[in-house]
Amino acid sequence: MAAVSETTTDERTSTWRIAGITLAIVLSLGLITLLTLGLVREPDRLKLDHSFDNGERVVPPDFTLPIFANGGRLGPVGTPVTLSALRGTPVVINFWASWCAPCHDEAPILQDLQRRFGDRVVFLTVNSEDGPDEAREFIRRYKATFPVVRTGQDNIRRSYGTNQMPETFVIDPDGTLGMTPFRGGIDVESAAEIADHLTAVLPK
Q1: Binning pLDDT at 50, 70 and 90, where does residue 8 land?
Q2: Residues paired with residue 66 on neighbouring β-strands, in sequence order
Q3: Per the count of CB atoms within 10 A, which of 22, 55, 173, 181 is most buried?
């Protein structure tokens, strides 16, 4: 009986060892897959950032979207606005949505920048993945006067590597990025950086 018991124990130990090895292999393969996806996606997502940091003059992806609100000199609601057509003027692009908590936090800061520079700089805010009524309520709540264009799809957002909102891109008069993109909400300090940069690139 002792021999049988010893054999059973050995079999159980062997079974657990095999199960442990199998689990380790599965976890390792999963980790390798995640790392591989990360290595593939991260450069794509941050391609604009990396290129800028490497000293390259980066032209951000062009797009054409209709004015949703506060068109001002860009035209009335429904007027199509093409980014490349704004070359010659600094442009600040901001991706936002009404359901995004940091978007609410930065709205007054963005509105202050619009108040200070809006006559010389185009603040082109892009409302994405949002309902029109919710977007209008957001604009009303913060008494926003910055121009808003709207897209019901996320292909433009993705072309900028934006997988979170808000994100902000500062474009110089020559049509290239002037600053590393702000991945996340802007605060008072980052708004001061943007203001200093805009002041430097605007005609004296």
Answers
A1: low
A2: 80
A3: 181
Distance linking the first and last C-alpha atoms of the chain = 98
Rounded Cα gap, residues 142 and 113, in angstroms: 13
pTM, two decimals, is: 0.77
Q: Residue 94 has what pLDDT?
A: 97
Among residues 161, 157, 88, 81, the alpha carbon closest in space to that of 121 is found at 88
Residue 34 pLDDT > 60: no
